[in-house]
């Protein structure tokens, strides 16, 4: 058939012909969403992972996620999948797109393109995490950064790259790199922290993504981040003394 129909006639006529002739011309990947969910608990940064109930990668750790429904908005899809698998309810203020990944053969079932999200669980959020749908269990995994290398720990057990399904280790690495690269000008990870905390606690949060901050004293840390942190005038008891508390502001870019 001549390609003239693409530039002649009405748009209504074009769409009718396109659906009849061209709509099956190109192979169609499945679209999925994945979520890298962070929280702050007992002085540690943690990620929410599931263990897969079904094949492929049955029993492996994985990010919460799944297939996007037909004509479903991507933001709605990731919030739906997270709720179905973990019973955690997120809203749009807590999520942001991280990357789109379409590496060939990343999913042994079929050709899939995944949109990964950064998700921030607020410190005061008391939602109970419970496995559902494709998740056999849920796990809060501690994130550590040793000499620039990511470490994931489930309690006393360290998780290796081979313990994760699909390419989810690489997605987590990308999430950590994204957060590390924005700490000095757009530290969205602060959303998981209490609104008021000691400077040492904020510094150790940053050190979870860039270990250089673990070596920095509080005076130099505040000097570098004076555009983000502000003294509250109050103090909080720590293990050794009462320390001044600070609040933070994340300026929109």
How would you characterize the overall build of this protein?
This protein has 253 residues and is an alpha+beta fold. Helix content is 22%, strand content 33%. It contains five helices and eleven strands, in the order H-E-E-E-H-E-E-E-E-E-H-E-H-H-E-E. Strands 1, 2, 3, 4, 5, 6, 7 and 8 form an eight-stranded mixed β-sheet that branches. Strands 9-11-10 form a three-stranded antiparallel β-sheet. The protein is globular and about 75 Å long. The termini are far apart.
Oligomeric state of the chains in view: single chain
Number of strands: 11
Order of helices and strands: HEEEHEEEEEHEHHEE
Strand content: 25-35%
Helix content: 10-25%
- Main β-sheet: number of strands, strand sense, barrel status? 8 strands, mixed
What is the arithmetic mean of pLDDT? Answer: 92
Overall structural class, as computed from helix and strand content, comes to: alpha+beta
Task: Name the shape in a single word.
Answer: globular
Number of helices: 5
End-to-end gap: 49 Å
The stretches of 5 or more residues where confidence is low (pLDDT under 50) are: none
Give the radius of gyration.
22 Å
Domain Nudix hydrolase: 28-165
InterPro entries: NUDIX_hydrolase-like_dom_sf (IPR015797), NUDIX_hydrolase_CS (IPR020084), NUDIX_hydrolase_dom (IPR000086), WH-like_DNA-bd_sf (IPR036388)
Organism: Streptococcus loxodontisalivarius
Keywords: Hydrolase
